[in-house]
Amino acid sequence: MAPVDRLTPLLQRFRVRTQLFHAGPLCGVTTFPAEPGRGFLHVLRRGEMELTVTDERGIPERVQITRPSLLFFPRPSDHAFLNAPTEESDFTCATLDFDGGATHPLVQALPSVIILPLDEVATLGPALDLLFSEVDNVRCGHPILADRLFEVVLIQLLRWMLDNPAHLALNQSLLSGLADQRLSPALVAVHEAPGESWTLQTMARAANMSRSAFASRFKDVVGQTPVDYLTEWRLTIAQGDLRAGTPVSTVAAELGYTSASAFSRAFAQRLGRSPRAWLAADSGGIPTGDVSRASDSTRM
Fold first, then answer.
1. Shared domain check, 129 and 203
2. What is the biggest distance separating any 2 CA atoms in the chain, rounded to whole angstroms?
3. Is 111 exposed, middle or buried (0-12, 13-18, 19+ CB in 10 A)?
4. Among 139, 168, 197, residue at a domain's last position
5. I need a surface site. Which of 85, 164, 168, 235 has the fewest CB within 10 A?
6. Same domain for 146 and 231?
7. DSSP code of 150?
């Protein structure tokens, strides 16, 4: 089977923007509060530290980091570093701002924190070497280039995760589906062309599987039915398009709905209100359970 680009269709529609904000030692206790729509990518280049991270139940957990490691926080999560005041410690840190905030597909699919020793992820080496070289030698265009290099590190990390799902013990999710050689062609096809007239049959054909085998495997690996995933993908795209000012009728047509009313019904069934009512609440800052609007104020 020919290799499939599992990341580009996803990241072209839902960008992740990285911004370097620290390079060098950290002393004492450094805290990173959770902010809607924002994640963090830290690289411990040298030294040791203690990490305290608050899980999704609000329970703090302590982790001792004794090797150079990458710490990836894709979702808003309170965390803190405690390390001795020594020049031997060395960190490089960036914020991650996700288009769509909490609705970004990767935010929903990834664990709350991933800690990987650098020597276990050999493919990160060249990208990190370039990043460290730029961080250590400040020249013209340094902030812009450092930000771009952090994006390269992130993409290399996501590639590694897709190629090594067993190492991370991923739960049922989109990432697990993209890591599955049988399912990934169908997922990529849906990501590339959400407005196609997809059916269970056509999705199964993209995966070169029978309908029953495809439906069963998809539910086992991704955690939802193919039709439910298709609907969720379309409506996630729709939220971004509506925020950008695209008319409801245009969004409906581009996402494969037979009419604006059919789209509005599907939208209301999933999000609890019509597209226009949802957009009015979202634009006005009225709490609706969708934290993605708050991320707009934190984007650099």
1. no
2. 63
3. middle
4. 168
5. 85
6. no
7. H
Please check whether residue 40 is in contact with residue 113, taking contact to mean a CB–CB distance below 8 angstroms: no
Walk along the chain (300 residues) and give the pLDDT tens digit of each residue: 557 899 999 999 999 999 998 888 776 678 888 888 889 999 988 888 888 888 777 778 888 998 899 999 998 888 888 875 566 668 889 999 988 888 888 888 888 889 999 988 888 888 888 888 888 877 787 788 889 999 999 999 999 999 888 787 778 899 999 999 999 999 999 999 999 999 999 999 999 999 999 999 999 999 999 999 999 999 999 999 999 999 999 999 999 999 999 999 999 999 999 999 999 888 764 433 333 322 332 232
Handedness of CA 254, 256, 259, 264 (dihedral sign): negative
Amino acid at the residue 76: P
* Domain count for the chain: 2
Token pair 């400040």 in the structure block, residue = 138
72, β-bridge pairs? 41, 114
